[in-house]
Automatic annotation (TrEMBL):
The keyword Thylakoid does not apply. This is Aspartate aminotransferase family protein. Pfam families: Aminotran_3. Its cofactor is pyridoxal 5'-phosphate. The keyword Metal-binding does not apply. Belongs to the class-III pyridoxal-phosphate-dependent aminotransferase family. One of its GO terms (cellular component) is cytosol. InterPro entries: Aminotrans_3, Aminotrans_3_PPA_site, PyrdxlP-dep_Trfase, PyrdxlP-dep_Trfase_major, PyrdxlP-dep_Trfase_small. Keywords: Aminotransferase, Pyridoxal phosphate, Transferase.
Length: 453
């Protein structure tokens, strides 16, 4: 695939100048960034105004699950725009109802009512609000290694350092350690030990906080930005049992892991667990138009049969976003994108990444499934010392910066976070494209190897 237009550096410079003059970027020191000016994208690739093409191993921000510019979804958005561009959320619309139906058909258990939001953070906000109102309790528990969004409650639920600047210590959030066998906070030597000790730690936390004060436990089914740590067998079922015992609402955040990313429609299916509330966004329509939501169990939905739900959004279930969702889900079904993600993970990405680990001393662990993988990069395999310190910046982050630069030089756009690189391409990436990405990673990891001991 090649760019559709001739290189135009002058146009790229104008785009960059306007960006630097007027756009305020998220999570950034504005004077220290140099955003790439993007001219176009299609499938698993995007390109700049110089004509340089990149294989996107980030799929946007892990949301272009069917790649960029899928013609059927673009056509559906265009058709909906010509028919009914927008309408208030209090009305019944065919496209909104159909999007809700298609999502509810794929969520586990009885999560059959859909509350639409504009994205994942708002979905988490509303899930917590529902849980608090349903239980009459205030506290919410979440894991340290997590990311749930940047709005008020969501950022307080988040466990990574992005929370620190906004943490009010008054949001009713209590953090706990979830299982992570490679860097076990419980000094476990097996997955079974890690599972048992993590569940005991969670139950102890609840006991000391007061079970009758806890409204919800919020977990990413598989933590995404924090490192793609698939929970050990039995853990999520154990959390489900604890929640049932204490009357706590179990919320699974599937914003990143949902809609085919793990080789199932939802990652909860891998663990045969049904939460009370499930949040989604990103892959629901491949990010083509902002959309998220909460899938709600029958019991919690019944709480608001005669009691108004005190929450809403001007653009809840926006017709263009819902049209994109309907088209995306149908494309995923008809083109077997979910099955393909499972296949590419089992036959190409998983084996290929493990082969890289055998060749490169900088790779401490490979973990993941489907189109959802992480390489934990280390200075020393024996001690598992991370390649860069936790939350490193500036000179301390130089090894990962060098690795990222090497990826880009080889035409791969990497997902880099702390001491990890994630392989999270479009779920419909071809085998040839996946192998191209693995070859670029192979070359870049040689740079990371230079920092090992």
């Amino acid at each position: 695939m090649t760019p559709h237009a001739e290189p135009d550096p002058q146009a790229g410079a104008a785009v960059k100048a306007a960006d630097r003059a007027h756009v305020f970027h998220s999570w950034s020191a504005q004077g220290l960034i140099d955003p790439l000016a993007v001219a176009g994208a299609e499938g698993s690739y995007f390109w700049d105004y110089e004509g340089k093409r990149y294989l996107d191993f980030t799929s946007g921000l892990v949301y272009t699950n069917i790649g960029y510019q899928h013609p059927r979804v673009v056509e559906a958005i265009q058709e909906q725009a010509g028919r009914l561009t927008t309408f208030a959320p209090a009305f019944a619309l065919d496209v909104r109802s159909e999007a809700a139906r298609l999502i509810a058909e794929r969520t586990p258990g009885d999560l059959d009512k859909i509350f639409f939001t504009n994205g994942g953070a708002e979905a988490v906000e509303n899930a917590v609000r529902m849980a608090r109102l349903h239980t009459g309790r205030a506290k919410v528990l979440s894991a340290y290694r997590s990311y749930h969004g940047a709005t008020s409650t969501a950022i307080n639920l988040t466990g990574d350092p992005r929370r620190w600047a906004s943490d009010t210590a008054s949001a009713g959030v209590v953090h706990f350690w979830a299982p992570f066998p490679y860097r076990s906070p419980f000094y476990s030597s097996t997955e079974a030990e890690e599972c048992a000790r993590a569940l005991r730690h969670l139950e102890d936390t609840i006991a000391f906080e007061g079970p009758a004060t806890v409204a919800a436990i919020v977990l990413e089914t598989i933590p995404g930005t924090a490192g793609i740590m698939t929970p050990p067998p039995g853990y999520l079922a154990g959390v489900r049992e604890i929640c049932d015992r204490y009357g706590i609402v179990f919320v699974l955040d599937e914003v990143m892991a949902g809609f085919g990313r793990t080789g199932r429609w939802f990652a909860a299916e891998h663990h045969d667990v049904v939460p009370d509330l499930l949040t989604f966004a990103k892959g629901v329509n491949s990010g083509y138009v902002p959309l998220g939501g909460v899938a709600i169990s029958a019991e919690i939905a019944a709480t608001f049969d005669r009691r108004p739900y005190p929450g809403g959004l001007t653009y809840s279930g926006h017709p263009l976003a819902c049209a994109a969702a309907v088209a995306t889900i149908r494309v995923m079904e008809e083109e077997k994108v979910v099955e393909h993600a499972a296949h590419i993970g089992e036959t190409v990405l998983g084996p290929g990444l493990r082969a890289l680990a055998e060749r490169h001393p900088s790779v401490g662990e490979v973990r993941g499934l489907g189109a959802f993988w992480a390489l934990d990069l280390v200075r020393d395999r024996e001690t598992r010392e991370p390649l860069v310190p936790y939350n490193a910046s500036g000179d301390a982050a130089a090894p990962m910066a060098a690795f990222g630069a090497a990826c880009k030089k080889n035409g791969l756009w990497p997902f880099v976070n702390m001491n990890r690189t994630h392989a999270v391409p479009a779920c419909n990436i071809t085998e040839a494209e996946a192998k191209e990405g693995l070859a670029a990673l192979d070359a870049a990891l040689s740079v990371a190897d230079e920092y090992t001991v």
